[in-house]
């Protein structure tokens, strides 16, 4: 049930009727006609822009359209008033029975209330985290992991066929550095002093890998030249790091469908195949790039390179894919990786990158556009930095990691549920302050607590109902006389519940899961306000002494709130609280 879609359909039917009566010309496009909550709730329950968007193509005054439309809408039993405002906006007020019907729909559909089919089974690949396998995940990866995972869940909830994917960057020089760093820990495990030279990874997390290498090789690699152990240690250390990363992700509640190795692209013809596809489209050529901005001519050495004509697909400059010495640029395997995604039959691609990848957006979008002939859209979401605070001070770096705060540091401090919710309390491209003290506070200023407390309060109502012998299962509650929920505060909660299906579709359409967290906070606020009024006005309390029918009606409203909170938290990957301790 999407009440806003239902009222929009009513508006469209009225507009079609106006056309058949000659009050509107034929051939108008109604796609931009919207029904949404008014900016000011005092103006009504819903508003439509129909008269405003149709005035120009209809060559009519907006108010003339709105006046006729208002009359037709007011004839529907669900509409108690339709008032024209300003130049031609139309504000609608709905009958209380409509909002009470929302409660019944929530209880009948459960957490499927708000679940959408708008995705029509579209296959979407969401790639996120994709950290270099050179150490544990840090707090920046944490934000990307939470955002990507919540986005994947949101898209699945809205009817998409979603694949969660991690790209293992195991084909570059950083994995050689990992192998050399692990070798020093191997020497340490054999009783020698490790030589952690500048540029190597200093974290203590490599000590167990050194010990595992000793168990496998004994001291046989000591004093052997690098050429004899580098390849084996690359593979061994990479596998160990990926085990660590998988464990970190599991601690956060993140599980991937696919782990794709960059290394698998090399020496297999897959990079060549991707570039061949671009060559056949006339998009690969030999050329010399202009000097980068800020480079003086004397600092610039022009070299002929193999270039991708990315400017034909929206990029600022063409991009090199092969260096003058014949080796691939870092961009070449990324092209091949996305070519693989396109050939796997995905209808849309989403990449979640850190803020430091901002300069990479246009070239990657250009590549996917070229590889798919513009048929597969790529949306790249950048997650901004996270600043950690504790006791009013920046949170110290992790000795275990060497020089950064790990995902485990955060999860061990506050738990996965708090970590995930807080990471979604800001839009992904806005910086985020994560204060370890504040996220554990029991106050309205802490959105995690505020939403969980609302759910826990409902659970307490259901427990008290059971103790009082009141049937409070969803079937019994959906059959209650919901018309008893007619107080303004009760209707406010019902109206907020009615927004949930619309919110899901907007959040999914814009790839913005933070909207779910914002909505849950607002819903919790409306519920807490109703609860507090019940302390003063006994008729608003959820359990009415000696009146089972009225109690069931009030409990139904509370239960509907918990159902939607549970659905929303499920999308965010957060477990609803049964009680607050």
TrEMBL record:
A motif ('HIGH' region) lies at residues 131-141. GO terms for cellular component: cytoplasm. GO terms for molecular function: arginine-tRNA ligase activity; ATP binding. Its EC number is 6.1.1.19. Residues 451-580 form the DALR anticodon binding domain. Pfam families: Arg_tRNA_synt_N, DALR_1, tRNA-synt_1d. PROSITE patterns: AA_TRNA_LIGASE_I (PS00178). CDD domains: ArgRS_core. Gene3D superfamilies: Arginyl tRNA synthetase N-terminal domain (3.30.1360.70), HUPs (3.40.50.620), Isoleucyl-tRNA Synthetase, Domain 1 (1.10.730.10). Its main location: cytoplasm. The keyword ATP-binding applies. GO terms for biological process: arginyl-tRNA aminoacylation. Residues 5-94 form the Arginyl tRNA synthetase N-terminal domain. It comes from the Bacteria. It catalyses: tRNA(Arg) + L-arginine + ATP = L-arginyl-tRNA(Arg) + AMP + diphosphate. Monomer. This is Arginine--tRNA ligase. It comes from Ruegeria denitrificans. The lineage of its organism: Bacteria, Pseudomonadati, Pseudomonadota, Alphaproteobacteria, Rhodobacterales.
């Amino acid at each position: 049930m999407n009440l806003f879609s239902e009222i929009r359909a009513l508006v469209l039917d009225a507009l079609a009727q106006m056309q058949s009566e000659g009050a509107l010309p034929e051939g108008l496009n109604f796609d931009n006609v919207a029904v949404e909550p008014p900016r000011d709730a005092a103006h009504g329950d819903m508003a439509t822009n129909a008269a405003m968007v149709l005035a120009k193509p209809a060559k009519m005054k907006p108010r003339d359209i709105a006046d006729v439309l208002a009359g037709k809408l007011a004839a529907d039993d669900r509409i108690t008033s339709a008032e024209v405002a300003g130049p031609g906006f139309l504000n609608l007020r709905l009958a209380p029975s409509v909002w009470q019907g929302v409660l019944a729909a929530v209880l009948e559909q459960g957490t499927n209330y708000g679940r959408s089919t708008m995705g029509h089974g579209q296959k979407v690949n969401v790639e996120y985290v994709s950290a270099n396998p050179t150490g544990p995940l840090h707090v920046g990866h944490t934000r990307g992991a939470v955002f990507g995972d919540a986005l994947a869940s949101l898209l699945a909830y809205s009817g998409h066929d979603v694949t969660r994917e991690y790209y293992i960057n195991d084909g570059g020089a950083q994995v050689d550095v990992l192998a050399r760093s692990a070798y020093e820990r191997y020497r340490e495990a054999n009783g020698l002093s490790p030589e952690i030279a500048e540029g190597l990874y200093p974290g203590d997390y490599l000590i167990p890998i050194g010990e595992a290498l000793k168990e496998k090789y004994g001291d046989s690699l000591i004093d052997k030249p690098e050429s004899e152990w580098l390849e084996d240690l690359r593979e061994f250390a990479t596998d160990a790091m990926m085990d660590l990363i998988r464990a970190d992700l599991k601690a956060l509640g993140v599980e991937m469908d696919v782990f794709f190795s960059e290394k698998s692209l090399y020496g297999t013809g897959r990079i060549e195949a991707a570039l061949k596809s671009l060559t056949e489209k006339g998009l690969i050529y030999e050329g010399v790039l202009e000097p980068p901005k800020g480079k003086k001519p004397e600092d610039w050495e022009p070299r002929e390179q193999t270039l991708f004509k990315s400017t034909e697909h929206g990029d600022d400059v063409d991009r090199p894919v092969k260096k003058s010495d014949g080796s691939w640029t870092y961009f070449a395997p990324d092209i091949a990786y996305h070519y693989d995604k396109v050939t796997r039959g995905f209808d849309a691609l989403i990449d979640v990158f850190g803020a430091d990848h901002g300069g990479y957006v246009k070239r990657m979008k250009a590549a996917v556009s070229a590889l798919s002939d513009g048929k597969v859209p790529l949306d790249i979401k950048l997650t901004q930095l996270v600043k950690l605070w504790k006791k009013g001070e920046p949170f110290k770096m992790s000795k275990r990691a060497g020089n950064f705060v790990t995902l485990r540091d955060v999860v061990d401090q506050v738990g996965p549920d708090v970590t995930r919710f807080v990471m979604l309390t800001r839009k992904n491209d806005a910086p985020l302050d994560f204060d370890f003290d504040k996220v554990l506070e029991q106050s309205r200023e802490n959105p995690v607590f505020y939403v969980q407390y609302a759910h826990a309060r409902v659970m307490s109502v259901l427990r008290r109902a059971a103790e009082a012998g009141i049937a409070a299962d969803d079937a019994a509650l959906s059959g209650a006389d919901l018309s008893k929920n007619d107080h303004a505060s009760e209707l406010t909660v019902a109206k907020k519940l009615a927004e949930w299906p619309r919110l899901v579709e907007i959040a999914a359409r814009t790839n913005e899961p933070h909207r779910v967290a914002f909505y849950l906070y607002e819903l919790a606020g409306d519920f807490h306000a109703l609860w507090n009024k019940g302390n003063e006005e006994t008729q608003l309390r959820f359990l009415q002494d000696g009146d089972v029918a009225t109690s069931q009606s009030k409990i139904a409203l509370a239960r509907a709130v918990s159902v939607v909170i549970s659905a929303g938290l499920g999308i965010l990957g957060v477990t609803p609280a049964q009680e607050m301790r």
